[in-house]
Amino acid sequence: MITVNFHGNIADLLSRKSKNGPLVSFHLDRRTSIKDLIESFGIPHPEIEEIVVDGKMVDFDYIVEDGIKIEVFPISAQSNFFKPSLLRPDPLEFHRFVVDINVAKLASKLRQLGFDTLLPRNCDDAGLAAIAGCQRRILLTRDCNLLKRKIVEFGHLVRAESPNYQLVEIIKLFDLKDKIKPYSRCFKCNGLLEAVAKEDILPFLEPLTKKYYQAFHRCLDCKKIYWSGSHREKMDEILLGILASC
After folding, report:
1. Span 29-77, pLDDT tens digits
2. What is the average pLDDT score of the chain?
3. Which residues, in sequence order, are CB contacts of 73 under 8 Å at separation 6+?
4. DSSP label at 73?
5. Do the Cβ atoms of 106 and 163 come closer than 8 Å?
6. How far apart are CA 167 and CA 103, in angstroms?
7. Which strands make up the sheet holding 56-57, listed edge to edge?
8. Which of 128, 64, 72, 78 is nearest to 100 (CA)?
């Protein structure tokens, strides 16, 4: 008999429920890795912070045997993705994201806060997983099966449905509040913004914009121009509300 105890919020993801809730017991009928065993219950491996078997930490390649007790712990705001661990020996260098189209609005909101965030268009699951793995990015999605791809080391299954609540969820989980640099990236393409002299962009400005605004920024990549108009005030109000919830 094998016993698996799923701790914290990953218990909510269990596809096979037990009368004992997050505590599942069963007989093993095949040889399998602990990664595949855990994912067979509907929990993608990027959601896992630590696995303990009979009191000893193990990695995803550990081969399961009958008669053991497994404890599975979730990633959390206390997780350190920049320090090598048994499950992730090659840590991240930066908080960089790639966002699935099913949470597309989250990408723009992360860029608004200054986080390097890709939103690939016309990209299948294999392509998204490859970007996450090869570019060392955190994959954000609502597709559980996408996160189960082996190449994906860092990722999160977004629980919230509203884009604003999704943003709060990500800020809390990855402890981003002190790393926010609002309006430093292009909402459209993710490029960095730089201050630009008004006289250098006059041909691209509408008459009323020329008349009433003096400070401008331009995307280094797509050349989109930004200024602090009435839309910025509304965005600031929303942003302050979001940060107050974090």
Report:
1. 888 999 999 999 999 999 999 999 999 999 999 999 989 999 999 999 9
2. 93
3. 7, 8, 48, 49, 50, 51, 52
4. E
5. yes
6. 10
7. 23-26, 2-6, 69-74, 48-53, 56-57
8. 128
pLDDT digits (tens, 9 = 90+) for 73-123: 999 999 999 999 999 999 999 999 999 999 999 999 999 999 999 999 889
Nearest to 48 by CA among 137, 147, 146, 130: 147
Closest CA to 6 of 33, 44, 62: 44
In degrees, rounded to 5, the angle at the alpha carbon of residue 237 between the alpha carbons of residues 236 and 241 is: 110
Token couple for 149? 């791809």
Look up the pTM and report it: 0.92
Q: Measured over all CA atoms, what is the biggest interatomic distance in the chain, rounded to whole angstroms?
A: 76
Q: Which residues pair with 53 in a beta bridge?
A: 56, 70
> Which DSSP state fits 16?
S
Question: Which residue from 110, 107, 87 is spatially nearest to 99, judged by alpha carbons?
Answer: 107
Q: Return d(Cα 191, Cα 218) in angstroms, integer.
A: 9
Residue 239: count of CB within 10 angstroms of its CB = 19
* Residue-wise DSSP of 94-140: S--EEE-GGGHHHHHHHHHTT--EE--SS--HHHHHHHHHHTT-EEE
Report how far residue 239's alpha carbon sits from residue 241's, in angstroms, rounded to the nearest whole number: 5
Q: Give the CA-trace dihedral at 104, 9, 174, 244, to 10 degrees.
A: 80
Position 178, amino acid: D
